[in-house]
Amino acid sequence: xxxxxxxxxxxxxxxxxxxxxxxxxxxxxxxxxxxxxxxxxxxxxxxxxxxxxxxxxxxxxxxxxxxxxxxxxxxxxxxxxxxxxxxxxxxxxxxxxxxxxxxxxxxxxxxxxxxxxxxxxxxxxxxxxxxxxxxxxxxxxxxxxxxxxxxxxxxxxxxxxxxxxxxxxxxxxxxxxxxxxxxxxxxxxxxxxxxxxxxxxxxxxxxxxxxxxxxxxxxxxxxxxxxxxxxxxxxxxxxxxxxxxxxxxx
Length: 250
Hints:
single chain, alpha+beta, Lambda Exonuclease, Chain A, five-stranded mixed sheet, Putative exodeoxyribonuclease 8 PDDEXK-like domain-containing protein, Put_RecE_PDDEXK-like_dom
């Protein structure tokens, strides 16, 4: 499913919950995507598209340094600054040479969209998973999420998983399979979630955190996303009640 089509779905995503949290608590209360430089965001999208959707690379490359590129006369691949081109190449090389990543890049569904209804709130939700592998008999499912990171040690990457609400993301994504509208994973007994972090700078080390093996990690993330889903539902209900009154005043 193309990104624009996914974003147009009238369902709540984990990113929507991040925005809701920032609106309620203030952008200053926690690390916020609002303050991430646009070039950094675009590079992150390019990283994911090179690795997971290589057929769409041209569309994201054209977003790099757009003020320096004339799309009518210059190929999209030339839009990358030389340093960024080399950096992206090293990241791709590191991941593709890693035995674990290589295996699941080959065996998994990539950028899999899952639609589900969260049972405790009744809210229609959606998720887009970097990689999801389901065993042949559908007894086991593994979700892998890729992150570029400034962390230089395993401990720092693990700390970032708490800092950036990755616990909420992991719980939201695992539960999207558990409660999928398609019922594909109804017979699945074990769900695992692994974050793979790759250093954005030399020596481009890889870090792995199995979220589902950390005591309390998923449970706390689940409490977080359900709290914000309730907030989202309350706001929708308030808007629905207020709409007729506002219409009368108009």
